Amino acid sequence: MTDRFDCYYCRDNLHGKKYVKKDDKHVCTKCFDKLCANTCAECRRPIGADSKELHHKNRYWHEDCFRCAKCYKPLASEPFSARDDGKIMCGKCGSREDGNRCQGCYKVVMPGSKNVEYKNKVWHEECFTCLDCKQPIRTQSFLTKGEDIYCAPCHDKKFAKKCFHCKQPISSGGISYQDQPWHSECFVCNTCRKPLAEARFTSHENNVYCVDCYKTDVAKKCHGCKNPITGFGHGTNVVNYEGYSWHEYCFNCKKCSLSLANKRFIINGDHIYCPDCAKKL
């Protein structure tokens, strides 16, 4: 005699029939659909014995119901994400919903796409542009002014000091002379072109000269000693008279060597004399 093999609920004989084993109980398909089947989280209908069931975190779906809530793409064999509101989304739609938004176009920056991050903000690479020329900065250096972003050339053109000599922007370094900015390479002797950034120099008629060139080419010659009157060190004070110049210390009586600076004097030929010595000539 054959042992009975019945449905746990309706007691129908299951020999030769399709059945489901649920919690170690044998159940006919009719009772399973009615009493044991999980409810699909999407369509709210039972997931019958003849349906393929998918589950995630204590929730269940028909295979055909397990789709992206945004684009309806089937996700049975695709990567997906579960949102806090219970929606299931494909990777692409999930990134669009939850991903960082570009500060330029305000669209989502998709994972893996080329982007620029700066101060906890993100841009598509093509949206990270100079405020002035509108060109993408990409791998170039850039500078900011407040919240505005500039490529280096536009920043220099707009904000950098201009060299007094060449009128071009000074992007870094440089020197200041008489409250005017200069490129170091522009601050050179007007005659020999020697760099003057760390050298002694003087100016004449808006040009700068090294000491040697100033002495040779620019400085007046003392009518007494015939040496240049440079203004460097001894001999800073100058006496001028009828187109001639003297170091103050050279402006002396030819005969008695009395200093005649700020005193009466008499010129005889190329020489100067005090009044007393002039009488004896």
How do the helices and strands line up, and which of them pair or pack?
Elements: E1 19-22, E2 25-28, H1 29-36, E3 53-56, E4 59-62, E5 80-82, E6 88-90, H2 91-98, E7 115-118, E8 121-124, E9 142-145, E10 148-151, H3 152-159, E11 175-177, E12 180-182, E13 201-204, E14 207-210, H4 211-218, E15 238-241, E16 244-247, E17 266-268, E18 271-273, H5 275-280
Antiparallel strand pairs: 1-2, 3-4, 5-6, 7-8, 9-10, 11-12, 13-14, 15-16, 17-18
CATH class division of the largest domain: Mainly Beta
Q: How many separate helices?
A: 5
Order of helices and strands: EEHEEEEHEEEEHEEEEHEEEEH
Count the beta strands.
18
Number of domains: 4
Structural class: alpha+beta
The gross shape turns out to be rod-shaped
CATH topology assignment of the largest domain:
Cysteine Rich Protein
The appropriate CATH architecture of the largest domain is: Ribbon
Keywords: Acetylation, Cytoplasm, Developmental protein, Differentiation, Isopeptide bond, LIM domain, Metal-binding, Repeat, Ubl conjugation, Zinc, Zinc-finger
GO molecular function: transmembrane transporter binding; zinc ion binding
InterPro entries: Fhl1, Znf_LIM
Function: May have an involvement in muscle development or hypertrophy. Isoform 2 binds to RBP-J and plays a negative regulatory role in the RBP-J-mediated transcription in mammalian systems.
Features:
alpha+beta; Cysteine Rich Protein; two-stranded antiparallel sheet; two-stranded antiparallel ribbon; 14% helix
Report on the architecture of this protein.
- Its main location: cytoplasm.
- It is found in: Cytoplasm.
- Keywords: Acetylation, Cytoplasm, Developmental protein, Differentiation, Isopeptide bond, LIM domain, Metal-binding, Repeat, Ubl conjugation, Zinc, Zinc-finger.
- This is Four and a half LIM domains protein 1.
- May have an involvement in muscle development or hypertrophy. Isoform 2 binds to RBP-J and plays a negative regulatory role in the RBP-J-mediated transcription in mammalian systems.
- The protein has 281 residues and is of the alpha+beta class.
- It has four domains: 37-91, Cysteine Rich Protein (Ribbon); 98-158, Cysteine Rich Protein, CATH 2.10.110; 160-218, Ribbon (Cysteine Rich Protein), CATH 2.10.110.10; 249-279, Cysteine Rich Protein.
- It has five helices and 18 strands.
- It has helices spanning 29-36, 91-98, 152-159, 211-218, 275-280, and strands at 19-22, 25-28, 53-56, 59-62, 80-82, 88-90, 115-118, 121-124, 142-145, 148-151, 175-177, 180-182, 201-204, 207-210, 238-241, 244-247, 266-268, 271-273.
- The strands form nine sheets. A two-stranded antiparallel ribbon has the order 1-2. It has a two-stranded antiparallel sheet with strand order 3-4. A two-stranded antiparallel sheet has the order 5-6.
- The chain starts with 18 loop residues before the first strand and ends with a helix.
